[in-house]
Amino acid sequence: MKATKVIIFEDEFLLANDLKRQLTQYGYEVTAMFGKAEEGLEYLGRPDIENADVILMDISLAGKMTGLDAAKIITEKYPCALLFLTGLSQIDIFEEAFKSKPYAFLLKPFDIQQAVINIRLAVYQKKLEKQLRKYQEELENIVQERTCELEKARDQAEEAVKHKNTVISNISNQIREPMYGIMGISAMMKEETQDKPQLQRQVQYIDDNARHLFSLLNKIADLSNDYNN
Prior knowledge:
The chain is an alpha/beta fold. It is built from six helices and five strands. The protein folds into two domains: about 5-110, Rossmann fold, CATH 3.40.50; about 155-229.
């Protein structure tokens, strides 16, 4: 199993070295230690450096930058779990530190077992967050794919409806024209056959069926319009 990589930001060399020794005994790999935030940030920015799993950050450091300043940069740029090291108890310091979203606070002097527990919890939480981001990305991809499929299906359905309307319109026009002719002829025949009742009934039958068919065409057109709306 790959050892968890740890970087320590602590300006008290003896304390940092003792913490490194104890963490090494618990199977952790302390890859670097820095007393100044500037040096640590320069180290993290090198392209040949593998990202650490955990960074232990002292709030008070020897350089111009504080641990709080460095923590803000690290949490924005690097995928590691950040834990603060502090012996301070002022509430304003803790409130400022919370803005960097640390995974825990390790209070000096250290209880190594308590420190190891917090580090393990931080690593585990970071792993869960990584998995959650992966699931979110996969879900977003699935939603995007389904959305594209639905949009494509919608476009195809709209195109099919347009085609259907065109076909219905063409057929309707092709049928309407002869229907107008039939109804016109039947009207003329009614005038010319007023003295022939039997022939009048036959002409009326033709006219009634023509008008019925004409009415059906109108209903079909109305149903098509209602479906589109």
